[in-house]
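Might you be able to consider the sequence and fold that I enclose below?
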Amino acid sequence: MADNHTTQAETNGVQKAESAKKQILLNAFDMSTIGHLSPGQWKNPVDRSATKRNLEYWIELAKLLERGGINALFLADTYGGYDTYEGSLDNCIRRAAQWPVTDPTIPISAMAAVTKNLGFAITASTSFEPPFLLAKRFSTLDHFTRGRIGWNIVTSWKKAAFKAIGLDNPIDHDERYRQADEYLRVVYKLWESSWSPDAISPDPLNDSYADPSLIRTIDHTGEFFSLSTRHIVDPSPQRTPFLFQAGTSSAGADFAATHAEGIFVQGNSPAALRPKIAAIRALAVSKQNRDPQSIKFFSTFTPIVGRTDEEAQEKYAELKKYASTIGGLVLFSGWTGIDISRLPLDQEITAADSLEANKIRGILESFTAEGDTERPRWTPRMVAERAAIGGLGPVAVGSAKTVADEMERWIEEGDLDGFNIAYVTTPGTFEDVVELLVPELRRRGRYPAAETEGEEEVTLRERIYGKGQRELRADHVGSGYKYDVYVEDEPFVGKSKGEGKE
C-alpha cells in the first residue's frame, strides 16, 4: 500500500512538473514565392513551391497546420529583389530566390474559411503606404478571420523597393524607426480611439444603424503623417492585430520594447540570443513599464525530421541534391550588404565587408559578432555550403526526439518562447512537423493538447495570452489610445514634415 501511495505521489509530481514547462509556440514560416529560405527545392519532385499561385496550395496548407494545432502561419513578404550579389538582380530572378513574389494578404480569407483556430501573421511595411489604408485592410482581415490576424511590422530597407515606388534612396535606418513609431500611434488611434464600443446600436424603427456621435474623427498632425478621418471600419474582434516585429539593432530594440507583442530574432546559437532577448525585456520594463514575459520571442528553426535519425540524415542528403548554392548566396548578400562573389573563398567575413548602407543589421551582426563561442568562422566557402537550406538559421536533422531535444535546448538556453518553422520542401517539412514532431512535443508537455470538437474559438492574441485577452494588454502602449481614455496629441511643431515619406 505504501509503495502504491509513493508511486501515485511521484506520478503527481511528474505531472505537476510537466504542466509547469514552458509551452512552445510554433508558427509555420512561409512566403508567397518559389524559393523562401531554401532556394532550389522547386526542382525537387516532392516540393510544391511552384504551385503557390494556385489558391489550392494555401487552402491545403491551412488545413494541415490546423490539424497540427500550429499557432499561426507567418507570411514573410518583400517589396524588391536582391541585387547585391554580383551587383545584379539576374541571379535572384534566375534562381527564384524570393522572386517572383505575390501579395500574401490575398489567400488569407480562403484559409480562414477552412480553419477555426489557425492564426495568420502578415508582413506589411510602414514605409510604403499611408496608415489609413493599412488600418482598413487589417481591420477587414481581423473581421474575416474572426480575430486571428497578426501584423509583422517591418520598416523597408531595399533600394530596389524604394525605386519601385519612385524614391531614389531608402530612408535612413534610425529615421525609419522614428517614422514607424509615429505610424503605429496613428493606427492605434484608428483601431482603438475612433469607435466607441457602443457605436453600433441598430434601431430599425428610427432608420439608424450606428451613432455618429460615438465615432470620433482622428485629427493627427505629426512629423511624418497627417490625417483627419473617422476609421471607416467598425471595431474588429481584436481591434489591433497581434503585433510581431523583427529587429534587434538599437533603434529596432527600442521600437520592439514599445510596440511588439511577438519578436522574431536571429542568431547562430541560443547563447548568442539570450543577451539580446534580455536587453529587450529590460527595455520593456524600464521604458514602458511592461511585463517582460508578455513579449514572446521566436527564432527561425528548420527541422528535417525522420522516424529515426538515420532516416532524417537520408532526407537531408536528398534535399542537398536540389539546393541552389547561388540562390543561397543571393539571399545572404542581400541581407548583409556583402557582395560575397567578390571575396576570396576562405577569407573570414567581417562587418567591414558590408559596403551597402541598407541591410538587415541584426542578420549581419549574427554573422560577425565577437564573443559568440558557437558562431562558426564564416567564409564564402562555408556560406556556399550552408546558405541554401534554412537561410543560414539553425537546422536540426534527426528523429522527432532528437529535434525536440534541440528545440528544448534553444528554448531554455535562449529564453525563447517559440519558433518560426522554416520549410525545406513544402508541404513535406510541415507534414513531418505535424505528424512526427508535434506528437513528441505533446508527450513532453511542451505543446498544447489538440482542440476538442465544439471548443470555443479564440483570437490569435488569446491563443498566446489566454482566453479573455482579445485586445491589447493594459500595459501595452496601444491601450493608452482606447476610446475612453484617448486625448489627441498636440500638432507637431519643428522641421517640415516628411512629405512623400508615406
